[in-house]
User: Which sequence fits this backbone?
């Protein structure tokens, strides 16, 4: 399924429904942000991306909890805060959303605004379909679920490129992927609910 085909399917399903929320899930390195941006651009006016990554706990919190080396794992997100955001987005009205700044490695609160004019929301994140408590409580908020499937070898290649771009040495990138990214990838692949649609990349 191409981005254009996905956009067309969203628009078809959303017709006459008011606000329509699509979950775009997939493992780290799958290309969720890129695909979401393409789909939102194709949908045009009234479409908006809502990233889950804005709910990363700050590094100071992760350090206190002994989770700094697991940053990006499900337990390193404020999932209850994200669930609350989803309830507000479903209810309507102006909603401020946080954005994760990867260059700074921190979340910027209230960095974007969703308004009532934004009727087609594409929510993107690793764990939107994770079949674990409390993540499964997100299910009622999504009108359509989409998962991105990518081979582990390709994910590994993309993540090596990503971490090189953000300044990690090849050795540091390899260690981070093996100790953190790959366990998270497998948790998504093997622990997520089946999506309504699958995009293979």
Assistant:
């Amino acid at each position: 399924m191409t981005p254009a085909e996905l956009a067309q399917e969203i628009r078809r399903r959303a017709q006459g429904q008011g606000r329509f929320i699509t979950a775009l899930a997939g493992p780290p390195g799958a290309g969720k942000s890129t695909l979401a941006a393409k789909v939102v651009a194709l949908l045009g006016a009234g479409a908006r991306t809502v990233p889950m990554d804005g709910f990363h706990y700050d590094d100071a919190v992760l350090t206190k909890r002994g989770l700094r080396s697991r940053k990006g794992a499900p337990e390193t997100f404020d999932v209850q805060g994200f669930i609350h955001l989803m309830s507000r987005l479903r209810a309507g009205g102006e909603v401020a959303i946080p954005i994760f700044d990867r260059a700074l490695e921190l979340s910027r609160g209230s960095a974007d605004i969703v308004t009532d004019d934004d009727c087609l929301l594409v929510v993107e994140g690793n764990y939107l379909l994770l079949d674990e408590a409390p993540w499964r409580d997100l299910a009622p908020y999504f009108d359509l679920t989409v998962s991105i499937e990518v081979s582990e070898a390709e994910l590994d290649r993309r993540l090596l490129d990503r971490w090189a771009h953000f300044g990690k040495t090849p050795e540091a990138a390899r260690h981070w992927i093996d100790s953190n990214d790959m366990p998270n990838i497998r948790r998504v692949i093997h622990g997520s609910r089946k999506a309504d649609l699958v995009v293979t990349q």
In short: The chain has a mean pLDDT of 95. The first strand starts at residue 20 and ends at 25.
